[in-house]
Amino acid sequence: MKSQLSHLDADGAARMVDVSTKAPSARSASARAVVALPPVCVRSLRAGPGSPKGDVLQVARIAGIQAAKRTHELIPLCHPLAITGVAVDLRLVAARIEILATVRCAGPTGVEMEALTAASVAALTVYDMLKALSHDLVIGPVELLEKTGGKSGAIRRRRSAP
Amino acid sequence: MKSQLSHLDADGAARMVDVSTKAPSARSASARAVVALPPVCVRSLRAGPGSPKGDVLQVARIAGIQAAKRTHELIPLCHPLAITGVAVDLRLVAARIEILATVRCAGPTGVEMEALTAASVAALTVYDMLKALSHDLVIGPVELLEKTGGKSGAIRRRRSAP
Amino acid sequence: MKSQLSHLDADGAARMVDVSTKAPSARSASARAVVALPPVCVRSLRAGPGSPKGDVLQVARIAGIQAAKRTHELIPLCHPLAITGVAVDLRLVAARIEILATVRCAGPTGVEMEALTAASVAALTVYDMLKALSHDLVIGPVELLEKTGGKSGAIRRRRSAP
Amino acid sequence: MKSQLSHLDADGAARMVDVSTKAPSARSASARAVVALPPVCVRSLRAGPGSPKGDVLQVARIAGIQAAKRTHELIPLCHPLAITGVAVDLRLVAARIEILATVRCAGPTGVEMEALTAASVAALTVYDMLKALSHDLVIGPVELLEKTGGKSGAIRRRRSAP
Amino acid sequence: MKSQLSHLDADGAARMVDVSTKAPSARSASARAVVALPPVCVRSLRAGPGSPKGDVLQVARIAGIQAAKRTHELIPLCHPLAITGVAVDLRLVAARIEILATVRCAGPTGVEMEALTAASVAALTVYDMLKALSHDLVIGPVELLEKTGGKSGAIRRRRSAP
Amino acid sequence: MKSQLSHLDADGAARMVDVSTKAPSARSASARAVVALPPVCVRSLRAGPGSPKGDVLQVARIAGIQAAKRTHELIPLCHPLAITGVAVDLRLVAARIEILATVRCAGPTGVEMEALTAASVAALTVYDMLKALSHDLVIGPVELLEKTGGKSGAIRRRRSAP
Asked: Which domain holds residue E58?
């Protein structure tokens, strides 16, 4: 069974998979993270012209973009990659913030982890910005939506509820 | 409304809240993250004596511990804190991995974000270790369970389903 | 002469000065950085309701706050410090952006370098955000305005022109 | 107006510009930073054979080289780049230190920010090394001198006074 | 003599060597580090089924892999490189732990320093994990075993005793 | 046996030991690293007035000081500590470079790993600076010489040969 997990060798030893012989190709991945908000946070963000919504989302967006660049420092067996583009979109939809992170690179491995990390850290930053109002924020689902490029070709996943 | 969000000043400008006058006190926080696994991953982890379960969980545990130390680099407005202890516990329960991260420090602000970051990065690392089998892993809920210390005293939250 | 430079020993060898016996005290420092803008940048930032001014300044503000936390990684002989507050204020005044960074900590050494680093990195980020319009931005003066706390007491400097 | 700033989309949301389709090319950039010194610092650096000048400049040079490698961590929307060379030259000229930083890479975007960051951090390090003598050092101008490579071709700027 | 040291220019100024014109090629390097263990550590690691050996070595292995990715942050004049694979093997042999680190990349410079850094940090982590038992661990020799790729071709070194 | 290793719990799970209840105290640690040099390197460093010795040692010294500050990022289970002083001394003795690193802090745990990390990274930097001449440099022994402070009191070790 173990041999199916590329990050472990036959003895269970962790390794960074050798991708030396894989040709670089254009790759992208999109991931989604949701932050469910308690009513006090929704009210604050929807308070109208003077609401902090734009500022909260801008800080979270920047945190997400920066986190994409640090993915290989956070996830032990990820390769360092020359990321060529990151976009993190945040929207307040009903009582939740929907985060969509898209990462691109031209390299020998995919950028799923970069997109998932960007979305996760943007969600954690939303939490940090709003926790003075309540600790009842809940993050999730965090999931891959799409990936393109590489030998395995495109993957497209259906988003979980909500 | 804005003034309730301590990370934004009256004009919406982001800031790191001044905690210079808060006395340091012993603090702890526990957070939980869940990774829902597709059947192929459950089968691999439950494959018996030769299964990669222990190795996958050990790598994720270390990633979570290290991430707690980097929280202030990832979340723009978090204070750097002298963390005095981190434990990250991972368990395979039914078709999901349950992650519990507990962080301690003696400082002027709480460690909720450190616990949530440790749990999130451990979850992302589980994803990375298993994604060769499937991309149908979904992270969430990620939530605070408990926090102690500080002026506001202890908070205990009920865990979300599942 | 050399012995007056605390970061070099009698042989010119670099060292991180031993502050083990200095009592921690409340300290603050404020630094200023100016970015002189060419007309095309001023016009863009003053374009009215749809202008990018707020967004450019918010990104620079966050970069400055984060840089304060990394000062000891950038400046080789700086001590790591438990910063307790950072505020970075940016204003468009005539044809320049005025940046004021204030950093606080309770520790054995001052936070001048943290304030100067926050102001400098905020200025570099303004440059990065506007360089698609022109490369004729010029950063400076970058200077200390004030510092409080520590044995040497308060220092207040007059700001340079412009 | 906003659309001219490539780091902001039509709604003012920050993004890391997608350079996936730009062909890598050889690029270089040179930036200059000046540190104006008060007389006590000039006297110390010019004290003759035993002066700390060489040591101060060597520490600042190394800090500048290392900072070039961290530009994408400091400036939120900068791409990570595979830098292929960095030189930081520091000279004591009259009552100021003149810093010239040159960075090279083969990639899809320019290295202006890397050169400006190297020069700025070298200047901050000079400040840190000399601040035991006086806080009257002033950094600036910090400016781009030249850039080559890329679609827009070479740019050469005249240096500001002094 | 100085000109033979590529990291110093004719005046002794440190620089990151310009490799802009070197064609990227497949490269690998292997390094070895030894940790000599006092008897109390050997007994603990050899205690049979319940021994901590596997866990100690797994933590050290992950630390070594992660350190390879940070080599250019630690060694001032190293180039940032897009590492394509890292394996760190640790074995308990008689009264010492033998560490073998192998790093691969496709780039313009070799990965000797990455392999040596991975081996060294794995050794330091073994030390950290066992120091509660004794401080009589000694690290060394740490040395290059082999390097391939690049203009200078393959180098193979004989391992030192023990 | 396992319970003697404080970094592993009863199940072998890695953890950052909880030091919340340990009182901070003044602590120091000194570590030594040796780099054995092949003749070509010794000749280059001993070449007289124009020799690169001072520059090579200064770069390595700075790298060692900076590495002490990053120990908790490199060694997974180390606590972040507010280091209050670092000195790294390098000397050319016969055919080897002797490195002595001393680290101080006021905290709840010792700084042995910080001293060992500073010495190791200084040694790796010496290697990097000289590897254009030969790859026959060998690092080791790297060992603790002394530690003071904390409940266990002072430890003094005899240095290994050579």
From this structure: 20-152
Q: Please give the DSSP secondary-structure letter assigned to residue E79.
A: P
Express each pLDDT in A3-44 by its tens digit. Answer: 589 999 988 899 999 999 888 889 999 999 999 999 999 999
* Buried b / exposed e along E22-60 (16+ C-beta atoms within 10 A): eebeebbbbbbbbbbbeeebbebbeeeeebbbbbbbbbb
Closest Cβ opposite residue E58 in set A14, A17, A77: A14
CATH number of domain containing D146: 3.30.70.640
Cβ within 8 Å of D, F 17-76: 55, 58-59, 62, 66
CB pairs < 8 Å spanning D and E = 55
3-state SS assignment for residue F61: helix
The answer to whether residue C21 sits within a structural domain is no
Cross-chain Cβ contact A138/B140 below 8 Å: yes
User: What is the total count of domains within chain B?
Assistant: 1
Kindly report the nearest CA distance between residue D140 and chain C, in angstroms.
4
- Mark which residues 99-118 of D lie under 8 Å from E by CB: 104-106
pLDDT digits (tens, 9 = 90+) for D43-82: 999 998 889 999 999 999 999 999 999 999 999 999 999 9
Nearest to F67 by CA among F138, F126, F26, F140: F126
pLDDT digits 0-9 by tens, C104-153: 998 899 999 999 999 999 999 999 999 999 999 999 999 999 999 988 77
The answer to whether the peptide bond before residue F141 is cis (omega within 30 degrees of 0) is yes
Q: Does C121 touch chain D (CB under 8 A)?
A: yes
Structure tokens at F158: 């005899």
Residue E13 maps to a domain: no
Cβ–Cβ of C59/A62 closer than 8 Å? yes
Considering the entire predicted model, what is its pTM?
0.97
D11 a catalytic residue? no
User: In this structure, is residue D137 part of a structural domain?
Assistant: yes
Chain B, nearest residue to E63 by Cα: B62
List, in order, residues 6 or more apart from F21 with CB less than 8 Å away.
none
Which residue of E lies nearest to F1 if distances are taken between CA atoms? E44
pLDDT at position E2:
43
Cα–Cα distance between D12 and C55 in angstroms, integer? Answer: 6
ipTM associated with this complex: 0.97
**Residues of C annotated as part of the active site:** 128
Question: Which of these, C103, F132, B87, F55, lies nearest to E113 by C-alpha position?
Answer: F132
Nearest to A65 among D12, D16, D19 (CB): D16
Share of chain C above pLDDT 70, in %: 98
Nearest residue to C30 (alpha-carbon basis) of C91, C87, C80: C87
| A108 assigned to some structural domain | yes
Is any Cβ of chain B less than 8 angstroms from the Cβ of C83? yes
> How much is the pLDDT for C153?
79
Contact E87/A16 with Cβ under 8 angstroms?
yes
Residue D117 neighbours by CB distance under 10 Å = 32
Cα–Cα distance, F12 to B68 (Å, whole number): 20
- Sequence-separated (6 or more) residues with CB below 8 Å from residue B1: A43, A44, A47, A50, A51, A52
CA distance F93 to chain E (A): 18
Query: Around Cβ E70, how many Cβ atoms within 10 Å?
Result: 20
